[in-house]
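ARCHIVE CARD
Drawer: 12
Card no.: 0347
Subject: one protein chain, sequence and derived structure
Cross-reference: see card 0346
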Amino acid sequence: MELSLTVLGSSGSYPGPGRACSSYLVEGGGVRVWVDAGSGSLANLQRHVALSEVDAVIISHEHADHWQDIEGFAIGCHLLLRLPPIPIYAPAGLRGRMQGPAGAFLWNDVTDDDRIRIGGLEVSFHRTDHGPETLAMRFDRGGRALGYSADSGPGWSLEALGRGLDLALCEATYLADREGTLQHLSARQAGVSARAAGAGRLVITHLQPGVDPERARAEAEAAFGAPVEVAIEGLRIEL
């Protein structure tokens, strides 16, 4: 297995009943990376790995539905388990919002066009059409590539992550009838973006509670031109 994705949370804006906000576990190259840490996702993370097995954390932006559970993670790792500081990569604005114990993380600010290596994983960052600074990510390992849109309006496309995406994980906050009401993508726009990028596979995520996932899937599929999956907690995909 060169690269895998596990969904820990898939709700947008706030967690729906029995759900968690945006959060994912990316594994490959000998490391486990927790990507975004939305409300409720820390509990789901521990269904798959122990806290001590997380090698790094990446947060896409400082909106609360993408980072709040790093507070509990910091308390568990630093104060209770007494683990060494864990590397965290995030836009510069997030650090000042953190209220957890000092010393839990090794902070690394990242921004548009930055590239890093975590173990055998290569990660590149690209700023999206969303405020505050929000970073989409591309993970490369062993000739396989995973792209994650984070949050974005339609002024940005998955094309910015480059060709050769085996899997695109793209936000699809609402249906086409609400396009333009918020700085987010609809399911239809997610399909358009993934098709333009030439992605081999599309998973839509960040659906707001109340959005019918089957309608979202249908809108995304019509635009993408191929079957689309809807992210749900526990979904695991190996590339």
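Annotation on reverse: The chain has one domain: 3-238. The radius of gyration is 16 Å.
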